[in-house]
Design goal:
The complex is a heterodimer of chains A (365) and B (255). Helix content of chain A is 41%, strand content 20%. By secondary structure, chain A is an alpha/beta fold. In chain A, strands 3-2-4-5-7-6-13 form a seven-stranded mixed beta sheet, sandwiched between helices. In chain A, strands 10-12-11-14-15-16 form a six-stranded mixed beta sheet, sandwiched between helices. In chain A, strands 1-8 form a two-stranded antiparallel ribbon. In chain A, helix 10 packs across helix 11. The longest helix of chain A has 19 residues. Chain A starts with a strand and ends in a 5-residue tail after the last strand. Chain B has one domain: Thiamin diphosphate (ThDP)-binding fold, Pyr/PP domains (Rossmann fold), CATH 3.40.50. Chain B contains ten helices and nine strands. In chain B, a hairpin with a 5-residue loop joins strand 5 and strand 6. The chains are: A alpha/beta (365), B alpha/beta (255). Chains A and B meet through helix 3, helix 4 and strand 9 of A and strand 2, helix 3 and helix 5 of B.
Chain lengths: 365, 255
């Protein structure tokens, strides 16, 4: 199929991109604002000879994905905050058993049932992992429908490359919005690619065991050190970001996803209203966090402003990356609230004028 | 000379690590014998659960996946849907299947997933030290009901076969026991039947095996097999609860 631009809804773009990436197993449970993904998969999977299951719960969904991945399929599930909480257990097991999968996480406001507006408050949940044990998961954070497509396909590759789950973290706004984008060609994925470790046809080989339990003294530490080496390699090779007008900026904004879209408008607003120049470091992965580039820029710039739709969660990663070399201020909205361009420009101006870093929560006053 | 008894090919060479008198090892052996007999070893995938059988994979010589507590049927569904040519079974205890994994059990059964659940009912949590299970009998003492199970506080023992027998996706349900040579022979037959029905693709199959836990019950193995006969069989009647290959659906349990 020719790569033509067409108008696509974010969630449906993710689903089709997953199909194009060779995903042939989907299990999921309805939750707003990601329902278009399972709905799309329910008719699309049968067309390509894949499996769609509406599971009895998020727990069942992630464990079905565990089984499908064990058998060598490119497999995925999708959910939002409360459902991701339930899936964290399965992600921990998949990391322990070294199984690849893809997880689309369309974030809504929390805590608890919260609301169904777009939010970024599940940053810690995604980057630190709510599951138990020492593990890490690559987390891709798109800001356009085109990136929803491209990063979904990349996440499948990264998951397979490292035999580890990978997550795409969007939000309700990105999932629901329509934008022109180019759908990519079908990847030629060979299901036998994982025959060296997957379960299934055991004729003519030793048996394969997929397992995360290691009770004998020392064996778990040895295994975890192996995982650590893998995570270090991911940190080294997979940090992704976009720089936008950073060179001449008085204040460097760090923002991702929907927050970065608004920040781009703020850069333009700052230009037209004058007297401050803004630039953006936009993380495309939040684990691994683009530490290296932020550290380099912190050696040259004095003022950073983290803009996020959560209570200063990414702020902690920014502080760790800048490492005291520059002032790092914060503009935070929560509960589905969005920072405005005016708030961003005004906060940047105040942050630049202030001797100390500032933390601004517009809804607090 | 003809060899008439040997280790089944489907069993690994590892010695069972279960307690003396425990039924798990009997059930593993029966499972392995049936897999050998059906000549499906290289296309069988077992799913181990959490509990005493957490290391089940070590005792078999075919592919295995270890599942989280209660999630074995979901994992088995994932494997089976991707590899419909494989024979996929779970080996689960009563805590795993009938407590924490109740949702996965009911829904995989109701969807008619073509997997086999080998359900070991010994009325107690063995691995964690003898706590009350969903199948603990009324009045039976455990470490979390030291005065005996009181149904006013903890409800009644769950009858899995009876519970599942009304679901459309279920193809075969039988309750057997492993406390005597006769019962062991019947248990082997039930396991074989379940695997055959899975291979035919007729739906969900489950074999419940009443099994002795001398350690958890604080009894000698010889006492435990008698206790099972005397105390468990009354509440958990043996028999076929559903068999889609037998024509008309059967009413209740028949010995």
């Amino acid at each position: 199929m020719a790569e033509e631009r067409s108008l696509m809804k974010g969630n449906e773009a993710i689903a089709e991109a997953a199909i194009r990436a060779g995903c042939r197993f989907f299990a999921g449970y309805p939750i707003t604002p990601q329902n278009e993904i399972p709905e799309y998969m329910s008719w699309r999977m049968p067309e390509v000879g894949g499996t769609f299951i509406q599971s009895e719960s998020e727990l069942a969904a992630i464990n079905m994905v565990y089984g499908a991945a064990s058998a060598g399929a490119r497999a995925m599930t999708s959910s939002s905050g409360p459902g991701i909480s339930l899936k964290q257990e399965g992600l921990s097991y998949m990391c322990g058993s070294e199984l690849p999968c893809f997880l689309a996480n369309i974030v809504r406001g929390g805590p608890g049932l919260g609301n169904i507006a777009g939010a970024q408050s599940d940053y810690f949940q995604a980057t630190r992992g709510g599951g138990h044990g020492d593990y890490r998961i690559p987390v891709f954070v798109p800001s356009t429908v085109q990136e929803l497509i491209d990063l979904t396909m990349l996440a499948f590759e990264v998951a397979d490359r490292y035999r580890n789950p990978a997550m795409l973290m969007g939000d309700g706004i990105l999932g629901q919005m329509m934008e022109p984008a180019v759908m990519r060609k079908m990847v030629d994925y060979d299901p036998k690619a994982k025959a060296s470790w997957a379960v299934g046809d055991a004729s003519g080989r030793e048996r394969h065991v997929i397992n995360s339990v290691r009770l004998a003294p020392g064996t778990l530490e040895t295994h975890n050190i192996r995982l650590l080496k893998k995570y270090r390699e991911i940190e080294e090779k997979e940090q992704r970001f976009e720089l936008f007008e950073v060179d001449n900026a008085d204040v460097v904004i760090i923002a991702y996803g929907t927050g970065a879209r608004i920040a781009k408008s703020a850069v333009a607003l700052a230009k037209t209203k004058g007297n401050i120049r803004l630039g953006i470091i936009r993380p495309i992965t939040v684990w691994p966090f683009p530490k290296k580039v932020i550290r380099e820029i912190a050696a040259k710039k004095e003022n950073f402003l983290v803009v996020e739709m959560s209570f200063g969660q990414m702020y902690e990663d920014a502080l760790l990356s800048v490492c005291g070399k520059a002032k790092v201020s914060l503009l935070a909205r929560t509960g589905g609230g969005l920072p405005t361009e005016e708030e961003i420009v005004e906060t940047a101006r105040r942050a630049m004028a202030s001797k100390e870093s500032i933390e601004v929560y517009p809804a607090l006053d | 000379m003809e060899k008439v008894f040997a280790r089944p090919e489907s069993l690994s060479k590892k010695q069972f690590t279960y307690c003396p008198g425990c039924g798990h090892s009997i059930i593993h052996r029966l499972t392995a014998e049936v897999i050998d007999e059906l000549r499906i070893r290289t296309r069988t995938v077992g799913v181990a659960s959490v509990g005493c059988s957490v290391f089940a994979d070590e005792f078999f010589d075919f592919d295995f996946v270890q599942a989280a507590h209660g999630r074995a049927p979901a994992v088995a569904v994932g494997v089976k849907r991707v590899r419909p040519d494989c024979v996929v079974f779970t080996h689960q205890g009563d805590g795993d299947l009938a407590s924490i994994g109740t949702a996965e059990m009911i829904h995989s059964a109701n969807r008619g997933e073509k997997i086999t659940v080998i359900f070991v009912n010994n009325a107690i949590y063995g691995m964690t030290g003898g706590q009350m299970a969903p199948t603990t009998l009324v009045g039976m003492k455990t470490t979390t009901c030291p005065d005996g199970r009181n149904p006013e506080l903890t409800g009644y023992p769950l009858r899995v076969c009876e519970l599942l027998s009304g679901l459309g996706g279920v193809a075969y349900l039988e309750r057997v026991a492993v406390n005597s040579p006769q019962n062991v022979t019947k248990a082997r037959h039930a396991l074989k039947k379940a695997f055959e029905i899975q291979i035919e693709g007729l739906g969900f199959t489950l074999v419940e095996l009443l099994s002795q836990c001398p350690t958890g019950w604080a009894q000698r193995p010889t006492e435990a097999v008698k206790w099972l006969e005397k105390e468990m069989r009354g509440y958990f009647p043996l028999g076929v609860f559903k068999d889609v290959t037998a024509g008309a659906p059967q009413e209740g349990a028949k010995e």
